[in-house]
Write a structure and sequence with these properties.
3 helices, Nuclear Transport Factor 2, Chain: A, globular, alpha+beta, 6-stranded mixed sheet
Length: 108
C-alpha cells in the first residue's frame, strides 16, 4: 500500500508543530488542492498557513485506506481555538501522494 492515513496525518502534524513545510511537501503532489469546509487552497497557500499554526491533530480514526484514497476522522485543537473539534478527512491519492485533500469540521 502507498501512504497510510496515519502517515498522512503525522505529516500534517509535524509541519504544524515544527513549522517545517517539508513534512507536508513530502506527502502531496505538486498540483495538490486542499478543500477545507469553506474554500479551496493550493499548496503554496496551505504551506503558509500550516507553518504558522499552533494546531495539533490527535485521535486518528481510519475509515478506509487503499492505493487510491484515505478516509477517516481526527481531532484538532490549537492555542487560537483550544476547544477540541472533530474533522472528517478524505484524500485522493496519485502515485502514493495526496493530490486532493478534503477536510470538513463535524458540527455537533
Amino acid at each position: 500500500m502507498s501512504l497510510t492515513f496515519k502517515e498522512a496525518l503525522d505529516g500534517w502534524n509535524k509541519t504544524f508543530t515544527t513549522g517545517d513545510a517539508r513534512f507536508i511537501s513530502n506527502i502531496v503532489t505538486d498540483d495538490f488542492v486542499f478543500r477545507p469546509t469553506y474554500e479551496n487552497e493550493n499548496l503554496e497557500q496551505v504551506l503558509v498557513w500550516a507553518t504558522n499554526t499552533t494546531s495539533v491533530l490527535s485521535d486518528y480514526k481510519v475509515i478506509n485506506e487503499d492505493n487510491y484514497s484515505l478516509c477517516g476522522f481526527h481531532s484538532v485543537n490549537s492555542r487560537e481555538n483550544p476547544e477540541k473539534r472533530t474533522k472528517m478527512v478524505y484524500a485522493s491519492l496519485r502515485n502514493g501522494k495526496i493530490a486532493v485533500y478534503h477536510c470538513h469540521e463535524i458540527i455537533p
